[in-house]
Write a structure and sequence with these properties.
This protein is α/β, with parallel strands linked by helices and about 425 residues long. The protein has two domains: about 10-225, Aldehyde Dehydrogenase, Chain A, domain 1, CATH 3.40.605.10; about 230-375, Aldehyde Dehydrogenase, Chain A, domain 2 (3-Layer(aba) Sandwich). About 40% of the residues lie in helices and about 20% in strands. The chain has 14 helices and 16 strands. The strands form four sheets. Strands 10-9-11-8-7-12-13 form a seven-stranded parallel sheet, with helices on both faces. It has a four-stranded parallel sheet with strand order 5-4-3-6, with helices on both faces. A three-stranded antiparallel sheet has the order 1-2-16, with no helix packed on it. The termini are far apart.
Amino acid sequence: MTTSLSSQMAALGDAARNAAAELAFASSERKYAALISAADAVWARREAIIDANCEDLVYGEEKGLSPAMMDRLLLNEARIRGIVDGLRAVAAQKDPVGEVISEWAQPSGLKIRRVRTPLGVIGVIYESRPNVTADAGALCLKAGNAVILRGGSESFHSSTAIHACLVEGLRAANLPEAAIQLVPTRDRAAVSEMLTMVNHIDVIVPRGGKGLVGLVQREARVPVFAHLEGIVHVYADRDADLDKARRIVLNSKTRRTGICGAAECLLIDWQFYTKHGAVLIEDLLAAGCEVRAEGELAKIPGTVRAQPEDFGHEFLDKIIAVKLVDGIDAAISHIRTYGSNHTDAILTENDATAARFFERLDSAILMRNASTQFADGGEFGMGAEIGIATGKLHARGPVGAEQLTSFKYLVEGDGTIRS
């Protein structure tokens, strides 16, 4: 670690701490104005952002990024519109800071309120997706936090262009520009430095592949909100509706294969298979998926025989593992063995079976008769998300503005003393 980089990161941390102190009491109106101004700036500069993204795409190709990673990196006008809509959606949300979570009075005469308060400074480390620059900046600001963003080297130009728009919004609202900072280097040593900045950063949120998230979870001295992998299962129960199942399975796998909510394993109940045949697998094959099938399913033309390592694997590509199971308990057992506690779905019209699935699995997100591609903070009404957390402390599932707050107790008396 060079002294210059350490000094640079410490300077970012000091500026973020100072900004966080001011943001903690910034009005809802100023935060709203900053986000709306940032959204306007992103749309006004969309051509420049796309030009910057072209530089990143060339860089990504030279690095040999996979098609799924290149898709994550790509920005076009439709995706920039999505960034703008996300900024506006977060701006329109209720400000969580200062919300009274609960209040009560004690026999001693004390009146106690538990009130939402910002976490302080958030560090976000991410790969490929330049839209995370806007999502993370917006959510942290909404929750009254300063944020230090460290985008991936492959998205450096895109993230820089988007960050400039966020700073323009802060400036327009007379909020500290250091509220949203972008680490201005591709040097990977900056990541290691962030992980040890316990005096500057209150929590780290990694967004990326298993390698990045694993590194952060192993080496961080700062608390972490993260998921290691999105090993997402869809279980087609014997009481599933065929038409619903066909739509949901295909959408869960193929809508976008490179996101953490994409299905990676399809479990099919034997009775469903006996009744309906291979239609779910045939749909996947017709959509261009490589289907890695176990046992009886491997006899279906066009499939590839699954290997043991295909179960519990995050493909992030048009590849899916499939397996027959004997009922709901066998499906639950498989998911407990191979899942990552991210998102799992059941397709069934049987309420009791669905209740058993919900009760006996402990994934951060459990779904019934819905595509796993809905595992997204925006689709949960959060405007956007900074990530999906699969741990059990503080934040779990999509991490939106509310999840980026803590709380404090406000206690009032009237000359009250303790006997």
